[in-house]
Amino acid sequence: MTSIQLSRHGQPQLSSLSSSQLRSGGVVAVVLLVLAGTVWLSGIPLRAADVDSGAGMSLSAGEQGTTLSVTSLDAGASASRTVTIRNPEGSDVRLALVENAAPTTAAGGALVLRIEHDERTVYEGPFGAMADVSQDVGWVAARGESTFTFTVSLPAEAVPFSAGGQPATASYAWETTP
User: Can you tell me where the transmembrane regions are (predicted)?
Assistant: First the structure.
C-alpha cells in the first residue's frame, strides 16, 4: 500500500495534454514535469516514497503525485494497487482526483481500469481514458484517511500484454479544498 499525506489546502489546475503529445518519446517525462510543477505551484506537499510493484503493475507516490504503470498482464487477469490519502488537518477537506493520460494502445487498447474510493467506484473504463479534469470524490475527515484502489484488468478474449513493450502509464494528482 502506498500512502500520501495532505498537509495544506490548494487547487492546482492541470492542463490536458493532447494525444499526439502523449505518444511522443518524452511522454512520461512531460506528464511528471507538468504534475510536479502544478503541485509545487499549488502548495500541496504530497509526501510518500513507497512503490508497490508486482504482477507487471506498479503504483508509486511522491511529491509529483501518483503514477500507475502496467508493463504486463495476462488475458483474463487483473491486478490491484492501493494508495491511502491522510488528512492531518484539524478540519475536513474536500478531495478531487485528476488523471493526466491518454487512452492506451497497449494490449490493443483492451486494458480496463477501475478506480474505487473507499470501496465506491469513481471510474471504470479504458485505461487512461478518464477525463483529464477534476473529479470530486468527496470529503476526508479531519485527521482521517481515504483509500483509493486501482484495478487493471484484461478481458479473457484480449491479446496478453507482455513485458518488453511500451508500458501503459497514467498519472494522478489530488486536489483539496477546505
Answer: 21-41
